[in-house]
């Protein structure tokens, strides 16, 4: 069972399939556009669609480590970078739809909004936080920064996910159902990490099976 | 990258029961998410053919001479992109969920500080004054706008009929509400029934319309059937839908959105490009169907008819 799973996880075809599946939200959006099925306010629809999928991909990316640990499938790590980059891909589409479709490059209007509108301020912050993570996602950058530094930098995804949820929560007028669903998911995923970290520390100080070497914090992110 | 292998003692290994529980928990979480999203479409599919009221052609209305000549928004947009939170908060929810809304029989109760409290049946309302088609601009507080050919008559006709006493200084409107017909209202985040209000002079203004139809037909359910207000110089939420009660009162009546979020929505809610919503700008708007935003006009372009009612008022304070 486990062996079969692992051979699926290591197959290069699995990566191809996951990649294509990650493109489905974009495909559906394009199809809806082609069909003229983007509601009476297509620009708003594109903004909401790409925003929704950004948060969803951030959540999926944050699921990888807990799933690796709980299901004992370390090979899941093979998909984390791709999923994270898809979160970045959708946030770029989200940002571009705001810049091009919503404001049509009106820099003054947009910058005023970034400074003045708190939901845009926090959303923009989340986007900026993801930029260095996307840039340093290559093996070359991991080597250049060193594993520890790289891990530390990439913890920024926690704050990007929190920013994304707050951005959505501050945007809605009164129905908070969906932003709160996302808040719960991000909250549980971050709480799991805190729990795991505390558990790990207690093990280290108590049982002392690893007297000199502490378990790699790289495992945590 | 990391070649260190953590050495685990047996006592550290999570007991099987614990991790399978966690696994179940995660699967449970995912399943719940899928179930929530699937439920909506499933319940719509299960509910079968619509049993509610549908629009019927209207005739015998005249064309109001002061209508805007701007291009009319396609009817499909006005009937599929709605804010009617009793039927759900997504723009597409009201058209999907109001299909079974029954608007016959329908009575509107007129009460409060009036000489003649009345219960008007829909038939009476249709005949109370000559129907006019008026093409108005309609500006939502969310910074989108539409141009709609409404059918109705000035609300002042109702006021004259009810003969308010000198004590009446405001008019309070109440929309229909029942959990049975509007189960999606639970997650709206605003209190129901929906209530709105106008100052007496605003309600008397010739532009304030009691509306019974649009696009040549009676109102579709999602647009506020069978009878609603249309107040074109104020943000859309002031124009209460599916009215069941009109009450003449002494003091400023509570209004739903300012009950829900008092710092964001005031009693007046006049369209005003200079007074922003706390969270977004009101300087521009997107007309549905247009790519570029357009500047928002003071009082939605109806200054000549309404601005005099607000002279000397600080519109920043009375937003």
Detail the topology: elements first, then pairings.
The complex is a heterodimer of chains A (221) and B (319).
Chain A: H1 2-10, H2 12-22, H3 24-34, H4 42-70, H5 80-102, H6 107-116, H7 118-135, H8 139-145, H9 147-154, H10 156-171, H11 177-206
Chain B: H1 16-46, E1 62-63, H2 75-80, H3 93-97, E2 107-112, E3 118-121, H4 122-127, E4 132-139, E5 144-154, H5 156-162, E6 170-175, E7 195-199, H6 200-204, E8 209-214, E9 217-218, E10 228-230, E11 243-249, H7 256-260, E12 284-287, E13 294-295, H8 303-306
Parallel strand pairs in B: 1-4, 2-11, 5-12
Antiparallel strand pairs in B: 2-3, 4-5, 5-8, 6-7, 6-11, 8-9, 8-10, 12-13
Keywords for this entry:
heterodimer; A: 221 residues; mainly alpha; globular; B: 319 residues; alpha+beta; Sulfite Oxidase, Chain A, domain 2; 8-stranded mixed beta sheet; 8 helices; 13 strands
């Amino acid at each position: 069972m486990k062996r079969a799973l692992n051979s699926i996880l290591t197959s290069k075809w699995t990566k191809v399939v996951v990649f294509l599946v990650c493109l489905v939200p974009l495909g559906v959006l394009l199809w809806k556009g082609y069909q003229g099925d983007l509601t009476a306010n297509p620009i708003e629809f594109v903004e909401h669609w790409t925003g929704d999928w950004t948060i969803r991909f951030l959540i999926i990316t944050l699921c990888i480590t807990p799933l690796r640990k709980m299901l004992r499938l370390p090979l899941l790590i093979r998909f984390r970078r791709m999923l994270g980059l898809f979160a970045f891909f959708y946030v770029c589409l989200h940002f571009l739809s705001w810049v091009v479709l919503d404001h049509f490059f009106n820099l003054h209007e947009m910058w005023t909004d970034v400074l003045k509108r708190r939901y845009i301020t926090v959303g923009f912050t989340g986007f900026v936080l993801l930029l260095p993570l996307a840039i340093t996602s290559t093996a070359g950058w991991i080597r250049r920064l060193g594993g520890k530094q790289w891990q530390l930098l990439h913890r920024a995804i926690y704050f990007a996910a929190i920013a994304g949820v707050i951005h959505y929560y501050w945007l809605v007028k009164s129905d908070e159902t969906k932003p709160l669903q996302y808040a719960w998911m991000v909250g549980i995923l971050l709480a799991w990490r805190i729990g795991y970290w505390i558990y790990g520390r207690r093990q280290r100080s108590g049982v002392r099976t690893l007297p000199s070497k502490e378990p790699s914090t790289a495992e945590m992110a | 990258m990391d070649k260190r292998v953590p050495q685990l003692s047996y006592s550290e290994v999570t007991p099987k029961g614990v991790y399978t529980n966690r696994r179940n928990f995660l699967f449970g979480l995912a399943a719940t998410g899928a179930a929530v999203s699937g439920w909506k479409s499933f319940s719509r599919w299960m509910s079968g053919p619509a049993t509610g009221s549908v629009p019927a052609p209207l005739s015998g209305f005249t064309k109001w001479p002061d209508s805007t000549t701007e291009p009319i928004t396609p009817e499909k947009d006005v009937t599929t992109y709605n804010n009617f939170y009793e039927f759900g908060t997504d723009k597409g929810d009201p058209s999907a969920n109001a299909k079974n809304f029954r608007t016959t029989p329908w009575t509107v109760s007129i009460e409060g500080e009036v000489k003649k409290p009345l219960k008007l049946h829909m038939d009476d309302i249709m005949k109370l004054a000559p129907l006019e088609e008026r093409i108005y601009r309609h500006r939502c507080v969310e910074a989108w706008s539409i141009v709609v050919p409404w059918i109705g008559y000035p609300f002042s006709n109702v006021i004259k009929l009810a003969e308010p006493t000198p004590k009446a200084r405001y008019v309070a409107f109440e929309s229909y509400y029942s959990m049975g017909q509007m189960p999606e209202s639970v997650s709206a985040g605003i209190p129901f029934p929906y209530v709105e209000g106008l100052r007496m002079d605003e309600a008397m203004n010739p532009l304030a319309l009691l509306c019974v139809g649009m696009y040549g037909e009676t109102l579709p359910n999602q647009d506020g059937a069978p009878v609603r207000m249309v107040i074109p110089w104020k943000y859309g939420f002031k124009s209460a839908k599916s009215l069941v009660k009109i009450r003449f009162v002494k003091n400023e009546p509570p209004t739903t959105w300012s009950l829900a979020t008092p710092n964001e929505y005031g009693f007046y809610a006049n369209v005003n490009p200079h007074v922003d919503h706390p969270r977004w700008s009101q300087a521009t708007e997107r007309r549905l169907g247009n790519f570029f935003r357009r500047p928002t006009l003071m009082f939605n372009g109806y200054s000549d008819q309404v601005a005099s009612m607000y002279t000397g008022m600080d519109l920043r304070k009375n937003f």
